[in-house]
Amino acid sequence: MGLFDFFKKKGPEYDVTNMSVHDLKTGFIFEYDLETWEVKEAYEYDWGSNFFSREYKVTNGTDVKYFSVEEDDDLELSWTEKIKIIQIDEHLLDELIAKQKPPKKLKANGVDFFFEEVSTGYFQDSLDRDENNWSEYRCWDFEDKSGKHILSIEQWDDEVFEASIGKNIKEFEISNILPAEKK
Amino acid sequence: MGLFRRLTRLGKAEANSLVDKFEDPIKMTEQGIRDLKKDLDQSLQSLAEVKAMAIRSKRDLSMNTDKANNYEQKAMLLLKKAEKGDITPEEADRLATEALKLKEEAVTDAKRAQEEVSRFENSVSNLQTNVKKLKNTITSYENELRTLKARSRVSKATSKINKQMSGIDSSGTVSMLEKMKEKVSQQEAMAEAYGEISAENISLDDEIDGALSDKNLKASNSLEELKAKMKNK
After folding, report:
1. Full-prediction pTM beyond 0.90?
2. Residues of A with CB below 8 A from B123's CB?
3. Which of B20, B41, B163, B175 is the most exposed place for a label (fewest CB within 10 A)?
């Protein structure tokens, strides 16, 4: 830190008159689907080649959802929730453990999902804590025919799998982003 | 008026004039907007805090409602067990009464949470109106400042050009162009004059020397050789 940095007043890292999904951090508040959501945790994914994406665990007081922000040419946003693997198929977990990958087609909540891509990267759950604690992670992405609904199977270890289901959303659907008080 | 008072007034006038010179209205406006943005940031944080409290109260409301339903279910189960003879009616009554007491506590907590949710939602709506006003004010100030900056830049450039065009600015571009034009004309005149002088100065000796030059001699020898060659053929 230079001598003059000491005198620099640290202002907010966002433009208060024009806050966007890129500014989100733990404690921030926003509106989606006519409800108010609070960011409880912020995660980061490193997909290699200097490509990162972010995910936020959010709650409206009764439900917990996951909001993902990915900048890949265009801004890609998704809104998901955890789903038990057994809810997709009662034999799916056995298949995942045996084959170490899911089948190309899955059905969940009455919707047919088709395999899109598999990505391997690293995950850290301490985006706001300046820690470097990455875990290896693999994710198979599925989409329905319309491309609106999404399903993902996540692998954390040889026998540890999770699933989430949701939909792709547009940036304008997220509104009234409010910053958290600085601690 | 006393001399001292006049001197003081003079000092004040000079100091004010100096401050006026240093005061840049654009920079002052920018600072004003920065200050307003800081106020807006604080207001947004307060609004976020109230909204977060509303979310927590909503969570409490949902949790206590579930709790109340759960204790009521338990009390009913206890009474059913007593009917079946699994436990004594006295024991079932005692436990069911305890369960209903806990249910009442949960209902009271749920009621409190519901009141808090309503109160926070009212505060949110008031705060949101004020925040929106402040945000709109800042945005309009920023837009106005942007326009003023552009107008100021254009007017500065226009005044510079006009000053140069009217010839008031002796060190400006127009006078430089005039000087350049004059210099080029002089150089052209000079070149023309040298050309005329060099054309006039060709003497008879120069012509003779030219005719006898090595180049001419070689050319004439070549001519003679060619003529001889043609005769032989």
Report:
1. no
2. none
3. B20
